[in-house]
Design goal:
4 helices, flat
Length: 118
């Protein structure tokens, strides 16, 4: 059974679909703007709490291990926003924090090989 749409019905369907697509595009644009604003705020906080050398080191780490850099940024921003960070973080302190967070993130994986008959 086939159904033929009239020109008017097709125009209504096209208009509804276009409105839906425009609404989805607007939502994606809004979310992108919000994300950009959050990221700008994060970078602003990091400029306050890190020395230039520490910022450079963190940027280099971000190129190689983005998940580690993000975890350290989250950790430092958390300390700053809770008022627990009393001093500016220098390069040496950042290295210690990177090592600590990296060791927490690593999981020990054990693989046991069993042969047939064992």
């Amino acid at each position: 059974m086939s159904y033929e749409y009239s020109d008017e019905e097709l125009e209504i369907l096209k208009r509804k679909r276009m409105e839906q697509m425009l609404a989805e595009a607007e939502e994606r644009r809004r979310r992108a703007e919000e994300e950009a604003a959050r990221e700008a705020q994060r970078q602003s906080i990091l400029r306050i709490i890190l020395t230039p050398e520490a910022r450079e080191r963190l940027a280099n780490v971000k190129l190689v291990k983005p998940e580690l850099a993000r975890a350290v940024e989250d950790y430092l921003i958390g300390l700053y926003t809770s008022g627990q960070l009393k001093n500016v973080v220098d390069d040496e302190t950042l290295r210690d924090i990177l090592a600590e967070v990296d060791s927490r993130m690593r999981r020990e994986v054990r693989i046991r090989v069993r042969r047939k008959g064992e």
